[in-house]
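Now read these lines:
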Amino acid sequence: MEFRNAEQDYVTEALTLALREYSMECTKCPQLMQTNFKTELREILKELFSSKYGKVAVENGKVIGYLVFSGPWDGFFGNAKGVYSPLGGSAFAGGNRNKLASKLLEAVAADIIADGVSSLALTRYAHDEEVGNSFIMNGFGIRCSDAVMKLNPRNKISDINGTITFKELIKEGKREITGLYRELIRHLSAAPIFFPMDLSRTEHWFLEDGIRVIAALEKGKIIGYMAFTGSGETFISECRNMYNICGAYVEKEYRNQEIAQQLLEYICGISEEEGMEYLGVDCETLNPTALRFWGKYFDNYTYSYARRIDERIIGYDEYLKKEWINK
């Protein structure tokens, strides 16, 4: 087996591996759509295989695996330069896929670190435990997940409480949830999540035309909200028959009253009325409240893994050479 740079000549073989992995996930996650994503994955691979940070594993003249990262970007999960491999950006075949994943990571990481990158992240299928455990043993931790719910048939999530009303906030009306959104940011920055957000970039995200906000009101007061959109974090969540939840928060004093469940049921109803077949959500797995809530109604189909490498390793080879020469 040898490792070569990921180039356009390998896209067709890589596509076969990518489609096989999606098919494997569908067998373990029945809520996923049985859709041929050949076109979408081909475009992802064509773009990725122009990246500087990618390797394919070739055995007996055949591609048996690949791992490609895009980037780098500054300020990636902290004050570091980072790279990211999206869903479809890696695939592994053969009888020892965990070893293959580890070897490909070794080959790619050498180029990445040489360019001063110390933050790595990648998204993989949630039920591929063999490869997932390989990355965990290589120092990665799970930090977020994408999940899916098939709308029809589905179990009813909650009855709508007669004391609670719901309305969609339009355009400038979405500013009414600013206070709740700030509380969400405080929640995310506290223990055990420790996830800081840049207010200058994120505070008005819900004013974007593509983001719809449903507010829950009691006696005219907004006590919670849930937002959704037609786009998402993966090629799967970009499907035309799928909406994606992109934010939710309920005031502390109104929790344990199924407000969030009623908001979710309300959005499920809207989605069905508008011809959607699936509802998706992504959340930080290091947010235990969100993880428990969404896990009751959605099935995970991805996990995203992240590793922060000790920045002192950058340039360490040159340091060792100098030390050895001096001694």
